[in-house]
Amino acid sequence: MPEQHTEIRRPSLPLADVLKALGDPTRLEIIRQMSVDGEVACTTLEKTLHVSKATISYHIKTLHNVDLVTIRKEGRFYFYALRADALEAYVPGFSAHLRTLPRI
What we know:
Layout: H1 13-22, H2 25-37, E1 40-41, H3 42-49, H4 53-65, E2 69-74, E3 77-82, H5 84-90, H6 94-98
Antiparallel strand pairs: 1-3, 2-3
């Protein structure tokens, strides 16, 4: 009798990681702002999200770990930008959809 495998196949780990990163409302708003405004300064995110630098840093690190954002330092200021190409590779059409969402 042939051996049967009933193992459930999981989605690829990178896709699961990206979806998990996008599942947080604060991170989704960060991505939305970058999609609309392009590069965004940390100070801008502080003002619009009403969260601390530490909170922004935590969320940016999560998004950066799945290659959805780039980080640029200029002097003592940090700037973040969406890697729309990476987002489109994982979730086609999502970048365009983000621009239609209201602020969270």
